[in-house]
Specification:
The protein has eleven helices and 13 strands. By secondary structure, the chain is of the alpha/beta class. Helix 1 (about 20-25) packs across helix 11. The radius of gyration is 23 Å and the shape is globular. About 45% of the residues are buried. Residues about 420-425 and about 425-438 have low confidence and may be disordered.
Length: about 450
């Protein structure tokens, strides 16, 4: 396929390039430029571009703050006019909307970058856009009310800005005003593991277009064999790391104290596998929490998909312990789980490298979304409108994004799905007399 057959693309908020790598793997996109704020991320992109691992030698890597960057400057640099770009892609920083931690929503300046993405859409007028974010965005409010001050705790009624979902509804409303309603968007709640990635990672993908098309995302192709015999089995951590070796692994490793607890946990287990007194002592107040504890003292399993790669794999509550060794997964191993190309290099300190790989979009989702957009680009305008009815400006589609591969507690036993239609069973508690397991 010649370059002229490919869709011209610009990437915003490029991070370490996961979304761009996925698009590149389709062979259908010509990446003109990546725009990213953090210098270490840009250094990584430049290095891997020069190694021929994504884009082309002509792909420009620009280190810019998109909150104050003029899109017309970028157009001039790339010799583009409004309406000439095929696809604008990007993942505005999502920490403001994540349910893991304090939610600042648009009161956090990072939350406003959603509207900077729209600013570039309005200026470039691309035929399509692809934006990704965390699922927490769907329930985020424009103004966050602390739980202790909400109506069910005696506080006043929520204002319109404090209602769950007000961020998304406002963003969609503003999107629909661009060029008098030129764009419509299909939002998909997806999980990378459902499409063959060896990782559980929930995301929302926005695919917008100005061609009045209804865009459909494929149904899941993978699932647990005992529940979905017609689908391919989930890919596992063992699949991802099969044959992978490193001479000098880069680690953000556990402290000796943390390793002492993790030695007592078998593959696929977590804090529930510790003696009760040890679990209480090691977890503090978290032991009594009602949810959010599955990552505590977690040891991974070769036979399961990897949990979501995070930027802090060595924390007690987000532990990513190797199945066989008492250590954290390395940066290189995490990159394989995220499906970066073989040979992909992250630059910076171990903390900076882990931030890059942990924040990345799984390349698999970029590839699937890219194939969807490329296929749509070959259809006529308006194709897919049911009964020629007016196309709604916005549609939200749930595609089995919430996936559980484990059942930690049932009838006094801890269970973990083994990928083969059954369940591997561990004793509920391991007494201290049993000693170290590995």
């Amino acid at each position: 396929m010649s370059a002229y057959d490919r869709l011209t693309t610009i990437s915003l908020f490029s991070g370490a390039g996961g979304l761009d790598v996925g698009l590149d793997q389709t062979g259908q996109f010509e990446l003109l430029a990546c725009v990213e704020y953090e210098q270490q991320f840009c250094d990584t992109l430049v290095h891997n571009r020069d190694q021929g691992l994504f884009g082309s030698p002509q792909t420009q890597i620009l280190c810019q703050d998109l909150s104050n960057y003029d899109p017309f400057d970028l157009m001039d640099r790339l010799d583009l006019k409004p309406g000439e770009l095929d696809v604008l892609v990007g993942g505005p920083p999502c920490q403001s909307f994540s349910t893991a931690g304090k939610r600042g929503t648009v009161e956090d300046p990072r939350g406003l970058l959603l509207w900077d993405f729209l600013r570039f859409v309005e200026a470039f007028k691309p035929k399509y856009f692809l934006m990704e974010n965390v699922r927490g965005l769907l329930s985020a409010a424009l103004r966050h009310r602390p739980i202790a001050e909400r109506p069910n705790r005696g506080g006043p009624a929520l204002t319109e800005e404090e209602l769950p979902g007000s961020v998304l509804s406002t963003w969609v409303s503003d999107m629909s005003k661009i060029d008098s309603g030129a764009y419509r968007v299909d939002l998909f709640e997806v999980n990378a593991v459902n499409y063959g990635a060896p990782q559980l990672r929930e995301r929302v993908l926005f695919i917008g277009n100005r061609r009045s098309q209804v865009i459909d995302f494929p149904e899941p192709t993978h699932g647990p064999s005992d529940e979905s015999p017609d689908l391919s089995p989930f890919s596992t951590l063992g699949d991802a790391l099969d044959g992978f070796e490193e001479s000098e692994p880069i680690l953000m490793d556990f402290s000796p104290r943390k390793k002492g607890f993790l030695r007592q946990v078998p593959p696929g287990g977590n804090w529930r596998m510790l003696p009760d007194d040890v679990a209480r002592e090691s977890m503090g107040k978290a032991y009594f929490a009602k949810g959010g504890r599955s990552g505590w003292w977690r040891r991974l399993s070769w036979d399961l998909p990897c949990p979501t790669i995070t930027t802090l794999p060595n924390h007690s509550s987000t532990s990513m312990c190797h199945p066989n060794e008492v250590r954290v997964l390395s940066v290189g191993e995490c990159a394989r789980v995220q499906e970066f190309p073989i040979g992909w290099t992250f630059l910076g300190t171990p903390q900076q490298q882990m931030k890059q790989v942990g924040n990345a979009v799984p390349a698999r989702l970029g590839k699937v979304a890219g194939e969807v957009i490329f296929d749509a680009s070959k259809r006529p305008d308006g194709d897919g409108n049911l009964d020629q009815r007016p196309t709604p400006a916005y549609r939200r589609v749930y595609l089995r994004s919430h996936v559980r591969t484990r059942q930690w507690w049932k009838a006094g036993q801890a269970f973990v799905w083994d990928g083969a239609g059954g369940a591997a069973e561990y004793s509920a508690r391991r007494s201290s007399q049993q000693g170290v397991l590995f």
